[in-house]
Design goal:
With 252 residues, the chain is α/β, with parallel strands linked by helices. The chain has one domain: Spore Coat Polysaccharide Biosynthesis Protein SpsA, Chain A (Alpha-Beta Complex), CATH 3.90.550.10. The chain has 9 helices and 11 strands.
Length: 252
């Protein structure tokens, strides 16, 4: 099975401006992300950006770069432009590896692409991992997902879902064991043709409220298959604390 990886990267960031170019162990973050993608079975890896500084940096370490428009509201919208510019086939499988995931294991990149190839009814595939503690479940920076009996997503949220009516009234109790709680891992695969449909759909109210682009797919009736990650994902970088954890991990 062949697939492609696109790494959307933008310079603007509310909490960490210039995030893709932040130095981690002597390399810019975007280079670490690119190297994780290069360790996978992908046949092609492309960095998609609208920023000349990121493009110049990526070119310097040998990456293929696709310059895209500034208007894109999400990484998926940006990847759709890459598909058009590169003239990829509608059946090509494309993995969206976000530009702030320098510790994402190549095993998971391969897994989400394989899952896409194995689920013809899915418009998108993604991954999850178990949540075992209350603090993680109630953390709004951790995205949660609930699936149906076949592994298709019912909803993604920053809120603790499913809400356990009886157990969550008491804050000091451990998580109930009669339901599985799952953290969403922000790694996606799609067929290139689906991205043309995605960009036609207007943003969904729930997508804008939660700031979760995958909710646009569910809102418009699409299907997202979710499978449990084979290995634990590394830390992504959303905050200064995340950055310090990743620096410590990648500098050893």
């Amino acid at each position: 099975m062949g697939f492609k990886v696109v790494i959307p990267a933008r310079y603007a960031s509310t909490r960490l401006p210039g995030k893709p170019l932040i130095d981690i162990g002597g390399k810019p973050m975007i280079q670490h992300v690119y190297e994780r993608a290069a360790e996978s079975a992908a046949g092609e890896v492309v960095i998609a950006t609208d920023d000349k500084r990121i493009a110049a940096c990526a070119t310097d370490f040998g990456a293929e770069v696709c310059m895209t428009a500034e208007r894109h509201r999400s990484g998926t919208d940006r990847i759709a432009e890459v598909v058009r510019q590169m003239d990829w086939s509608v059946d090509d499988i494309v993995v969206n590896l976000q530009g702030d995931e320098p510790c994402m294991p190549a095993t998971l990149i391969d897994q989400v692409a394989t899952d896409m190839a194995s689920h013809g009814r899915a418009d998108m595939t993604t991954l999850s991992s178990p949540i075992k503690d209350r603090d993680t479940l109630f953390d709004p920076h951790v995205v949660k997902v609930v699936t149906d009996m076949e592994g298709y997503a019912l909803y993604f949220s920053r809120a603790p879902i499913p809400w356990h009516r009886d157990e969550f009234t008491q804050e000091d109790r451990p998580l109930p064991t009669d339901v599985d709680f799952a953290r969403h891992i922000g790694l996606y695969a799609y067929r290139a043709g689906f991205l043309e449909q995605y960009v036609i759909w207007p943003p969904a109210p729930v997508e804008q409220a939660e700031s979760l682009e995958q909710l646009r797919v569910l809102w418009h009736g699409g299907r997202i298959h979710v499978t449990g990650a084979k290995v634990e994902p590394g830390h992504g970088v959303d905050t200064e604390d995340d950055l310090q954890r990743v620096i410590s991990q990648l500098s050893t």
